[in-house]
């Protein structure tokens, strides 16, 4: 299964590999909250090895768009998982998104 094949943080930490994730982490998949929380944990534990870029779904207007994404939007997933705390959690996730860069330099290239 997917979960059994996912890279564990411990595996990555000791590999010395640098990871660049390219955005759209919450683009309407059924596990958007789990994906972004996993990536945030990855970044916290390996700040010099993990880099997250911002995609268009990391914008409040997109990840809160219930009319377009319905139950798949990040806001609805937060409401389903966290109930009364959903708006606070959704806002805090978006504050993290606000701080993400739009591009990265790799060997002096964008």
Describe this structure in words.
The chain is mainly alpha-helical and 110 residues long. It has one domain. The protein has 7 helices and 2 strands, in the order H-H-E-H-E-H-H-H-H. A two-stranded parallel ribbon has the order 1-2. Helix 3 links the parallel strand 1 (19-21) and strand 2. The longest helix has 14 residues, at 32-45. It is globular. The protein starts with a helix and ends in an 11-residue tail after the last helix.
Quickly describe the structure:
With 110 residues, the chain is mainly α. It has 7 helices and 2 strands, in the order ααβαβαααα. α6 crosses α7.
Give the secondary structure arrangement, pairings included:
Blueprint: H1 2-5, H2 9-15, E1 19-21, H3 32-45, E2 50-52, H4 60-63, H5 66-69, H6 74-82, H7 86-99
Parallel strand pairs: 1-2
Give the SSE order as H and E letters: HHEHEHHHH
The helix content, as a percent range, equals 40-55%
Q: What structural class do helix, strand and pairing data support?
A: mainly alpha
Report the radius of gyration as a whole number of Å: 15 Å
């Amino acid at each position: 299964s997917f979960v059994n094949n996912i890279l564990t943080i411990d595996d990555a930490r000791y590999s010395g590999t640098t990871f660049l994730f390219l955005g759209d982490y919450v683009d309407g998949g059924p596990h958007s909250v789990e994906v972004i929380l996993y990536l945030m944990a990855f970044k916290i534990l390996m700040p010099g090895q993990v880099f997250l870029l911002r995609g268009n779904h990391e914008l409040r207007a997109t990840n809160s768009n219930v009319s377009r994404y319905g139950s798949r939007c990040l806001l609805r997933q937060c409401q389903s998982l966290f109930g009364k705390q959903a708006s606070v959690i959704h806002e805090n996730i978006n504050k993290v998104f606000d701080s993400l860069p739009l591009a990265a330099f790799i060997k002096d290239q964008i």
